[in-house]
Recover the amino acids of this structure.
């Protein structure tokens, strides 16, 4: 393999982004919400939106409690 092809192969490699780990408390809240909706596998798009709004509300409430 020539140098140009070798450079192309190295630069074209896809890498999975490294995402920050979610704190355990947030994961527990998400799991509880999913369970209340019958599990993530059975949820419809509207339910995903409801989960997002509920999670956002719970996190905002927790934030405000910590600020007091």
């Amino acid at each position: 393999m020539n140098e140009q092809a070798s450079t192309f192969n190295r630069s074209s490699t896809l890498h999975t982004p490294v995402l920050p780990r979610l704190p355990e408390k947030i994961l527990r809240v998400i799991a509880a919400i999913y369970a209340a909706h019958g599990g993530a596998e059975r949820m419809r798009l509207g339910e995903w939106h409801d989960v997002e709004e509920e999670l956002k509300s719970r996190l905002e409430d927790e934030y405000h409690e910590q600020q007091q």
